[in-house]
Known about the structure:
The chain is mainly α. Helices cover about 80% and strands about 0% of the residues. Among the domains are: about 160 residues; about 170 residues, Cytochrome c oxidase-like, subunit I domain (Cytochrome C Oxidase, Chain A, Up-down Bundle), CATH 1.20.210. Bound molecules: protoporphyrin IX containing FE (2 copies) and fe (ii) ion.
Amino acid sequence: MSTNGLEGVMQSGNHACAKIRARWTEFSQWVNLDSNNLSDGQKLAVKYFTVAVILFFAQIVFGMLAATQFIYPSFLYEILDFNVNRMVHINAMVIWMLYGFIGCVYWLLEDESKTEIVGLKLGNIAFWVLTGAVTLVVLVYLLVQIGPGKTSSLWLINEGREYIEAPRWADIGIVVVMLIFFYNVVATFSKGQWSGIAGVLTLDLVALAGLYVAGMFYMTNITHDQYWWWWVIHLWVEATWEVLVGVIMAWSLMKLLGVKRKIVQTWLYIEVALMFGSGILGLGHHYFWIGTPEYWLTIGGFFSALEPIPLVAMVVHAVYDSGSHAFKNGNHPALAWIIAHAFGNFFGAGVWGFMHTLPQINLYTHGTQWSASHGHLAFFGAYATINIAFFYLAIQHWRGNVWMSGQSENAWRWKWALGLLNVGVVGMTIALLIAGYEQSFIERAVEGSTWAGYFSAQNHPSFQSAMIWRWFFGLVTFAGLILLIWDLLTIGKTETRKAQEIISE
Ligand code: HEM
Ligand code: HEM
Ligand SMILES: [Fe+2]
């Protein structure tokens, strides 16, 4: 290329950069958020929240593609196959929720420890490294969809374990980033002050980061492989994540409703004890049919049946606390999402989980759309909701702690986003439950789990219409998410009244 040609390319590159910068400035002016309202830890937190929302969006897009393929199996065939869409859908979910949780912890860290965050620079570097790695992993998922199952594939392309398919290089990176995060949390509390909430949080993060390692080793025996994989999947969502949201809820209830620390802390201890007491051996409900010894039928059935108890306790706790404070708070959308969390967690995990957790029932429901029904309501109800509540807490602070209520300007947006998202997910849940019922009857009970039975169940009108309804409610969910993002970018922009003044009135 001649020098002139190169200059031309550089000039157009500069031109494009300038254009992007101009657009960014326009966007920032439109959003009009003032970062001077945030502490350093909170600035780091909102970076995590931003990526979380982007990945949430990606999750739903790929969910819609996968749902379309249930109805038109040839849609995007060999361009973007179902297995790829499904993988990106659920990996994006796990990662956005982790981003959200890390953001929540960075957000409350300085407030709870009463000091400045210790390793801010390191935290920022970790954020960019993690985000770069996530982008690269997703690009590789999309660009290298098929290939040989070699050791190099395991290291560079895909590890093949549902929900945590990231290749091993990324696994190691994730562990390093988690260690930096952990250091930041512990060092900051040690420099400032410890509290009951801080102690529970720290112990929980040890378990959360440690368990991830159980999903990193290749095993030739599929039973062994699944045995360890569930240590991450089940023990994360039914033990460490539940405790983590317990911590986040405890802190939010103090900030949002002014509940006394002694009350939330006592509840937190009780819930942690119940959660670990039932959830650790509850792991056995995934060991029924994978080739593990038969005693898991008894252990898994018994302990997992106890798992709803802490979830019931949490609902009682939430209702009790909000009742005794007569809903006096200056952030209605956040509170609405916290209520959605309390009930979503109880129904999605507690009720929908309990329905198929006894081996006598699971024999018929295992691996049907029943599981997907539970999976959607539980992940959304327990973890999407609490993250969204926190996004609203964060945006309120970012705007300078303005009042956010059902009477504010454009309040219809957050109300409709709340309604559409919840109706969408509940609608999908019911559609999937109907499909799951039908599969359990036709494929399992009537046709005795045969290959032919599998196809009769898939071709049954109840199954096929359920897939159409799931698609429809998926679209409702999608609409809710778009509205939510719009609302998060604009809520409180024109509000001048402060939340604190309203409450003390
Ligand atoms: C927030 C907490 C929970 C979340 C996010 C969650 C999510 C999930 C997901 C996504 C699956 C499907 C896994 C797969 O791909 O195979 C699953 C399976 C299962 N869950 Fe949960 N779950 C939660 C709590 C519970 C609780 C409390 C119970 C029992 C009381 C339960 C019982 C089960 C059972 C029995 C299965 C296996 C289904 C099968 O055999 O196919 N879950 N869960
Ligand atoms: C537009 C909305 C959505 C659509 C259309 C959608 C669609 C799908 C589809 C087609 C699958 C594959 C199911 C299969 O293999 O049979 C799936 C799996 C899954 N989705 Fe979604 N999804 C949506 C939203 C969500 C949300 C909001 C969450 C949770 C926050 C979620 C969590 C999951 C989980 C955990 C699985 C794995 C379930 C299992 O293995 O049993 N999805 N989704
Ligand atoms: Fe489980």
